[in-house]
Amino acid sequence: MVDGPKRRLPVIGSGAPAGPATPSAPGAAPPRGAAGSPEKRRLPVLQGSGDGEGEERPPWHWIALGTVAIFIVWLPLAGLANTLLRRMIERTGDGEAQGSVRLAMVGLNAIAFALAGAAGGYLVGRFGGRAGRREAAASGAVVAALAWALALAEGAPAGALGWALLLVVMVAIGAAASYAGGLAGLRARAGAPPSI
Question: Which tens digits make up the pLDDT trace of 23-38?
Answer without folding.
Answer: 555 555 556 655 556 6
